[in-house]
Design a protein that fits this description.
Organism: Sphingosinicella xenopeptidilytica
Order of helices and strands: HHHHHHHHH
Number of helices: 9
Protein name: Tetratricopeptide repeat protein
Structural class: mainly alpha
CATH topology: Serine Threonine Protein Phosphatase 5, Tetratricopeptide repeat
Strand content: under 5%
Pfam families: Sel1 (PF08238)
Keywords: Signal
Distance between the termini: 39 Å
Length: about 170
């Protein structure tokens, strides 16, 4: 499997709005995200990190994912797979598909978390069912590959867990 970081970055850039990220003021959030993304792409990681951090404090799953990307790649921060996985988990638990893909890959490889194929399968499957179309195809690829190493019983149990799982509520201001 390819690294989720490039995928997460591309999908974060393609995200249409902050309506589903928990950030109350869309204009403020959109402007901050645009500025942070611009800074990230020009290599001004300090500015990017500050922008993403501020958005993450307001519940933005996109910003949380981008902070995970920064920690995974060591862009403007000391590389830390564990910190990256923590940011991916926060965004994934909100139902953000690109973060679910990144977290699935972290579990599949044991990057920043214990290697756990069951958890990797769970997050990949969640990415296919959460309604985030940008994550559905990469999720299906991972579900197929990971599912081959799981028993039919285990797959059925995880399928049921995903079916009953709901993203955690956004932080209310």
């Amino acid at each position: 499997m390819k690294t989720p970081l490039a995928i997460a970055l591309l999908l974060a850039l393609a995200a249409p709005s902050f309506a589903d990220t928990g950030v109350g003021n869309g204009d403020w959030a959109s402007a901050r995200l645009e500025g942070a993304m611009s800074a990230y792409h020009t290599g001004d990681y300090r500015t990017a990190r500050r922008g993403f951090q501020r958005l993450a404090e307001h519940g933005s799953a996109i910003a949380e994912t981008m902070l995970g990307v920064m920690y995974a790649k060591g862009h403007g921060v000391r590389a830390s797979p564990a910190v990256a996985a923590g940011w991916f988990r926060r965004a994934a638990s909100r139902g953000y598909g690109p973060a679910q893909i990144a977290l699935s890959d972290a579990f599949a490889r044991g990057h920043g978390v214990s290697r756990d194929i069951d958890d990797a399968y769970f997050w990949a499957l969640a990415a296919t069912t959460g309604g985030d179309r940008s994550a559905e195809a990469p999720g299906r690829i991972r579900v197929k590959a990971l599912g081959e190493s799981l028993s039919p019983e285990t797959r059925a149990e995880i399928d049921e867990e995903v079916h009953n799982w709901r993203p955690r509520a956004q932080r209310q201001r």
